[in-house]
Design goal:
By secondary structure, the chain is mostly beta strands. 0% of the residues lie in helices and 74% in strands. It has an 11-stranded antiparallel beta sheet, with no helix packed on it.
Length: 206
């Protein structure tokens, strides 16, 4: 694989990176040229909004499922917020799509994939904190653009909660719960796996 890239990076309170990328990618028996514009922006607006970041690409993309060239974009957005001194919240939203040409249409949307994630941590004291995570992943597809049979939509959800208490300087007790779900043919999120656990962590010293 050959790669040529040029870039400009500036760093202050705000970080910005912009790059043009020219490479070759193999899919199946074919090798495709891929030219994309890549970007990354990060800044810290305030003490309460400690970080906001945006990165991704736009330009040529590869339909690896069907081994053909296409176009598309990837957008990854994230933020870290501190509403109070005890609460820390992280938010992630990722999008990716690929467009392809077929006999009937040009630049038709092959798929759109999304990842949404929220993580919150509340610290009561130096010994006690609780953390919750929720993530939803989905993909919408145009079945007519695939060379094989595939689902029009797939999705999954994962959630977890964790309570941690520091018993002493080398022992921590964890109590947690997890819930995973997956979409069915009628687009419901059916339970896939559930778990509840209690864990004691102890650091041995020699």
């Amino acid at each position: 694989m050959q790669r040529r890239s040029t870039g400009i990076t500036t760093r202050r309170i705000t970080t910005r990176t912009f790059r043009y990328n020219d490479d070759a990618v193999r899919s199946g028996a074919e090798t495709f040229a891929r030219r994309r514009f890549l970007y990354y922006v990060q800044f810290s607006p305030s003490r309460r909004i400690s970080e906001v970041a945006l990165n991704g690409s736009v330009g040529d993309e590869i339909d690896f499922a069907n081994s053909r060239a296409g176009t598309g974009s990837t957008i990854n957005m994230s933020a870290r917020v501190n509403p109070t001194n005890h609460l820390d919240v992280s938010i992630v939203q990722n999008l990716r799509w690929v467009n392809v040409d077929d006999a009937q249409r040009r630049d038709a949307r092959l798929f759109l994939a999304r990842v949404s994630r929220v993580r919150g941590t509340y610290t009561f004291t130096s010994r006690l904190f609780v953390r919750g995570i929720a993530q939803y992943v989905s993909t919408d597809r145009d079945r007519s653009l695939y060379t094989f049979d595939t689902a029009a939509k797939s999705a999954s959800f994962g959630g977890s909660a964790l309570l941690a208490y520091k018993l002493n300087w080398q022992s921590v007790m964890f109590v947690g719960y997890g819930d995973d779900r997956e979409s069915t043919s009628d687009e419901r999120l059916a339970p896939l796996d559930r778990q509840f656990f209690i864990k004691l962590s102890y650091a041995f010293q020699r």
